[in-house]
């Protein structure tokens, strides 16, 4: 059998990226952490951690990390069933892939409504977050992909509505005669990262294909809104975040009555089904408070 203390040391180093931080987390010395990691690596005959700044897991280390996470969640669920749960911890960690706009608009409410575990969030575009689950690197994901992931269950959450918005000054400068293909081809836009296709998809929906506007790259949901307010560019912003600014006249839609709805789904691994009994209802309830009904097929 594997030594639980050694597994915990490996998991702590992978999670924190540092032997020193892992030692602080577990109340040990860095040399004790190093010794435990070395012992389990020798026993398994495999390197589990690539030492560096930060330390990162090898494929074998990642598999052991997932095992430690699953065991922690299952043990916590068992303690809850037996009435032995300690409200003061230690709590297991639950790794979830979520898109930045969900985190900025509704997912924090789901975390607040869930007790008994710590959340380890991985940010990725909604079109790619389910890939983390397929690779086994997370236990659950908020995704724009409703396709079934092997070994997982899926539930539709609703649609996050986006509005193409810009500041009034920006509109006067770039679209004084109205938004057009010619104007969009030269007016600076905003893009979250190289996976973000929302601006492109909105343009295709309303103006057809073939446009590639110049863009600023801003990998932050809040910076996206701030940059729009500052007149730096136009972008697709969640309606929940920008509606107060639209109401106050500080932002305007590029085209009236032209929202773009992105369906979202909640996927979770059956391997931690029991542990997800409180998390899934919290996620669904938080999503329902913000998301719109799923668009008709």
What does this molecule look like?
Among the domains are: 1-88, Winged helix-like DNA-binding domain superfamily/Winged helix DNA-binding domain (Arc Repressor Mutant, subunit A); 160-261, Periplasmic binding protein-like II (D-Maltodextrin-Binding Protein, domain 2, 3-Layer(aba) Sandwich). The protein contains twelve helices and eleven strands. With 297 residues, it is of the alpha/beta class.
Poorly predicted regions: none
> Whole-number average pLDDT?
91
Looking at this structure, what is the CATH superfamily of the domain at 160-261? Periplasmic binding protein-like II
Shape: elongated
CATH class of the domain at 160-261: Alpha Beta
Instruction: Count the DSSP helices.
Output: 12
Alpha-carbon Rg, integer: 23 Å
Which bin fits the share of residues in helices? 40-55%
DSSP strand tally: 11
CATH T-level topology of the domain at 160-261: D-Maltodextrin-Binding Protein, domain 2
> Between the first and last Cα atoms, what is the distance in angstroms?
51 Å
CATH architecture of the domain at 160-261: 3-Layer(aba) Sandwich
Structural class: alpha/beta
**Order of secondary-structure elements:** HHHEEHEHEHEEHHEHEHEHEEH
Keyword list:
D-Maltodextrin-Binding Protein, domain 2, Arc Repressor Mutant, subunit A, alpha/beta, 297 residues, 43% helix
Explain the layout of strands and helices.
Elements: H1 4-16, H2 19-26, H3 30-44, E1 49-50, E2 56-57, H4 59-81, E3 93-98, H5 100-112, E4 118-123, H6 129-134, E5 140-143, E6 152-166, H7 168-174, H8 181-184, E7 189-191, H9 198-207, E8 215-217, H10 221-229, E9 235-238, H11 239-247, E10 252-253, E11 260-269, H12 279-288
Parallel strand pairs: 3-4, 3-5, 7-8
Antiparallel strand pairs: 1-2, 5-11, 6-9, 6-10, 6-11
């Amino acid at each position: 059998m594997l030594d639980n203390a050694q597994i915990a040391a490996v998991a702590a180093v992978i999670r924190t990226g540092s032997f020193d931080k892992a030692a602080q987390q577990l109340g040990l010395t860095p040399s004790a952490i190093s010794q435990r990691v070395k012992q389990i690596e020798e026993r398994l005959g495999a390197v589990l951690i690539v030492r560096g700044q930060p330390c990162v897991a090898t494929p074998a280390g990642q598999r052991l990390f997932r095992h430690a996470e699953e065991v922690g969640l299952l043990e916590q669920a068992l303690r809850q069933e037996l009435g032995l749960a300690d409200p003061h911890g230690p709590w297991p960690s639950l790794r979830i892939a979520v898109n930045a706009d969900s985190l900025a608009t509704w997912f924090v409410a789901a975390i607040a409504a869930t007790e008994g575990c710590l959340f380890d969030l991985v940010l990725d575009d909604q079109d790619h977050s389910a890939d983390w689950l397929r690779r086994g690197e997370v236990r659950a994901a908020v995704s724009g992909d409703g396709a079934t992931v092997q070994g997982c269950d899926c539930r539709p959450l609703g649609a996050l509505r986006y509005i193409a918005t810009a500041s009034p000054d920006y509109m006067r400068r770039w679209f004084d005669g109205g938004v057009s293909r010619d104007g969009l081809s030269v007016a600076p836009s905003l893009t979250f990262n190289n996976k973000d296709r929302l601006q492109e998809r909105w343009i295709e929906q309303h103006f057809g294909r073939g446009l590639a506007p110049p863009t600023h790259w801003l990998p932050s949901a809040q910076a996206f809104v701030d940059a729009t307010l500052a007149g730096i560019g136009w972008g697709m912003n969640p309606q929940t975040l920008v509606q107060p600014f639209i109401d106050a006249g500080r932002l305007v839609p590029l085209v009236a009555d032209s929202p773009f709805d992105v369906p979202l789904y909640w996927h979770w691994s059956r391997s931690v089904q029991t542990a997800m009994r409180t998390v899934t209802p919290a996620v669904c309830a938080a999503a329902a408070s913000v998301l719109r009904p799923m668009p008709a097929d």
